[in-house]
Write a structure and sequence with these properties.
Elements: H1 2-7, H2 10-38, H3 44-59, E1 67-68, H4 74-105, H5 109-112, H6 117-140, H7 153-162, H8 169-188, H9 194-208, H10 235-265, H11 273-292, E2 299-300, H12 302-310, H13 317-332, H14 334-338, H15 342-355, H16 359-364, H17 370-385, H18 388-418, H19 421-426
Antiparallel strand pairs: 1-2
Helix pairs in contact: 2-3, 2-4, 2-9, 2-12, 2-13, 2-15, 3-11, 3-13, 4-10, 4-11, 6-7, 6-15, 6-17, 6-18, 8-9, 8-15, 9-15, 10-12, 17-18
Length: about 425
């Protein structure tokens, strides 16, 4: 007991409370927006954190890594919801969680974490563009656009441009207030919960200007019941490949986020190869628990994790505090959450999409190696035109092709070196 008291001081407790509280403030509007974007009840985006945080905090390797609903999982779960409703989300999340545990047992985490950074940046950029484009019709109040996440993003953008004359002023004001205020707050005060502040300002602006737009409404605070679904032979061809792709993309996200957080923490020991496998196992178990209820799977969230560290979070307790404070915010602030305009929620999603466009990579693009630039651009474009799994596979295939080309070049050069000696040996 004396050893425990020595290791966990009041200073660490205060830091964990501050870090967990900030992470919870960021998670509240973002989780609601992500679940809505997937076609699920908004509160499901918060249940992901509430259900998985205790498991990842206990079994995960990185003590300050904060998980939750992420944009990288949207294409997979949105497609499952469009096809089979909440039961489809439950199936694809369960399959993804099982695959992540398989990755852990087979010790594949150490290899998954080595996906080229250009592919990850391109994937992030493509997802960000999808998030922004998908919210334009809500922010602009255009009702003629009927395309969804399962349709081409390019087609949605064209439809929005064609119907731009029918846009409405009121939702556009709310969406722009969120985007602009969140951008300013994030730049001036990086530790502040920019999305939540943006929603609050949009709420006040709407009341001051007499704007009455559709609101989220009251959210049920009870743990959702087990999702009902049944398996069919067609799921072998539909759900299992999608679950594998979701598991792969989520694994890449978790391990890369963990690496970034470890680097940001500074003086801590570097991540071992086996730690990647442990992290995937913990998130696999947690996501199976979330999938049972139909909640989206949890992955590493860079914004919450880095905010946790910046505000003093240093132990696993910060992750637990993040979940407890999120529940308290939802319980005590349900009246405010119910009156958040849907257009403001769309503004959060659009703002996060803009943040994911990876502007630093675009600035470095002319100086990048050709294969890195090609992988970045092809992955980003393929996310918009095809799907997330094909995009990551396409980006990685460019590096495989480069490797094979170099090996064939070395083989041919070695052949040229031995050719002149062969006649002499024959003579």
């Amino acid at each position: 007991m004396q050893s425990l008291k020595f290791r966990y001081s009041w200073r660490a407790l205060l830091g964990d409370l501050a870090g967990g509280a900030t992470a919870a403030l960021i998670a509240l509007p973002y989780g609601l927006a992500m679940a809505s974007l997937m076609g699920l009840p908004p509160v499901f985006g918060l249940f992901t954190s509430l259900l998985t945080a205790p498991i990842t905090a206990v079994f995960g390797r990185n003590p300050v890594l904060i998980g939750g609903t992420s944009s990288v999982t949207v294409p997979f779960i949105a497609l499952a919801v469009a096809d089979q409703g909440i039961g489809g989300a439950a199936k694809v999340s369960l399959v993804a969680g099982v695959f992540m545990m398989v990755f852990c047992v087979l010790r594949l985490g150490r290899y998954i974490s080595s996906v080229p950074g250009a592919v990850v940046s391109g994937f992030s950029c493509g997802i960000g563009a999808m998030m922004f484009i998908s919210q334009l019709k809500t922010i602009l109040g255009i009702t003629a656009v009927s395309a969804s996440w399962v349709s081409s993003m390019a087609g949605q953008l064209v439809q929005v441009i064609r119907h731009i004359n029918s846009m409405r002023f009121e939702p556009a004001v709310l969406g722009l207030v969120v985007i602009l205020s969140a951008t300013v707050v994030a730049r001036l005060w990086p530790k502040a919960p920019a999305p939540l502040i943006g929603v609050g300002l949009a709420f006040l602006a709407g009341r001051a200007m007499g704007i009455h737009e559709r609101e989220i409404g009251l959210l049920p605070l009870e743990i959702p019941p087990f999702a009902g679904f049944s398996w069919s032979p067609s799921d072998v061809y539909d759900v299992i490949p999608s679950g594998f792709g979701l598991a792969f993309v989520a694994s890449v996200n978790i391990l890369l986020t963990s690496r970034v957080v470890e680097h940001f923490r500074g003086k801590h020991r570097p991540m071992k190869r086996a730690d990647a496998d442990t992290e995937l196992g913990a998130y696999g178990i947690a996501n199976v628990c979330a999938g049972i209820f139909g909640a989206p799977i949890s992955v590493g969230i860079p914004a919450r994790s880095l905010a946790n560290v910046r505000c003093g979070g240093s132990t696993r307790m910060s992750n637990l505090f993040h979940a407890l404070i999120l529940f308290a915010l939802l319980k005590l602030g349900s009246e405010f959450v119910a009156h958040i305009p849907v257009a403001a929620l769309a503004g959060i999603t659009a703002w996060m999409g803009l943040c994911l466009l990876d502007w630093s990579t675009w600035r470095r693009l002319p100086r990048m190696r050709r294969v890195d630039a090609a992988a970045f651009l092809s992955t980003a474009i393929a996310v918009l035109l095809v799907n997330a799994v094909a995009a990551v596979a396409l980006g990685c295939s460019l590096y495989v092709a480069q490797h094979l080309y170099r090996r064939s070049g070395k083989s041919s050069s070695l052949g040229n070196l031995t050719t002149p000696e062969e006649p002499q040996a024959a003579g």
